[in-house]
């Protein structure tokens, strides 16, 4: 089903070309859809920014932005369906709206939502990934223009981290430090020939100079190329096989000194599948949920933005356990960003 959806835009573009529709007409139509998409994000961000500023007292306020993109996955495309499931779990009522550190999510100065980038609608017009990545980057910048909003992005597969971190770095005017929690380093040069693969996002980030320091935690599925690429870019890779040795350091991190801030990217498969089975790439031997929270809670940093990616609702349990896990990650990241 999801693979068929992913190909729909390509087929539509081929039909237009075969019908001898001039390229200029096609591009004009694509531009209208892109402009409408950006207008939607812009106006929602303005509305939420005005509300937060009117309430006053917020130095930084988290705003959710969904990027339901799954076609750059190398295995399953289910993460495209994650943002609405995460939102549903955040507000499902089975728990209260207070984070572990005492932030109240019902307060708009702590958390707002500007909706989703309409990824599939844009792709249905035949827009290629170069332009789509630019749309995602511009959408993130539109959120950041509405001070004090800071984006917390709901994926989607991990390919979204490249355009998001690019936006954050460019908007702030310099590189950020990145804390990346994942079972995989996602640093292939171009996995299966796709430079925008979810397994290549951090190669694009490091090539672009958008991150000064990249720490990858939870790694337990890494190839020779992954290690070589890590060395090439000076990445600090912390594998699960040495986690007991590294725990003290990782649970007392201090990041961001001398750069524009810290970005946190959480791939849900950083967790052991016992805690989060609803992922595309199941890798036993991962972090416990409390391990992750200890790392996040104890982190000393100015966290300026974050993402939660690779939750796959199509592989979740019947009771939506992984959705609740992803929602809890969003809640605690919100507390880390909002000030």
Automatic annotation (TrEMBL):
Where Mn(2+) binds, per the record, is at: 158, 182, 184, 186, 267, 269
Gene3D superfamilies documented for this protein? Ureohydrolase domain (3.40.800.10)
Record's keyword terms, sorted:
Arginine metabolism, Hydrolase, Manganese, Metal-binding, Putrescine biosynthesis
User: What GO annotations for molecular function exist for this entry?
Assistant: agmatinase activity; arginase activity; metal ion binding
The cofactor named in the record is:
Mn(2+)
Going by the entry's taxonomy, the superkingdom of the source organism is recorded as Eukaryota
Catalytic reactions on record: agmatine + H2O = urea + putrescine; L-arginine + H2O = urea + L-ornithine
InterPro entries, alphabetized: Ureohydrolase, Ureohydrolase_dom_sf, Ureohydrolase_Mn_BS
Q: How is the cofactor bound?
A: Binds 2 manganese ions per subunit.
Q: Which PANTHER family match?
A: ARGINASE/AGMATINASE, GUANIDINO ACID HYDROLASE, MITOCHONDRIAL
Role: Catalyzes the hydrolysis of L-arginine to urea and L-ornithine. The latter can be utilized in the urea cycle or as a precursor for the synthesis of both polyamines and proline. Possesses agmatinase activity. Catalyzes the formation of putrescine from agmatine.
Similarity-based family: Belongs to the arginase family. Agmatinase subfamily.
Q: Give the protein's recorded name.
A: Arginase
**Annotated organism of origin:** Citrus sinensis
Q: What is the lineage of its organism?
A: Eukaryota, Viridiplantae, Streptophyta, Embryophyta, Tracheophyta
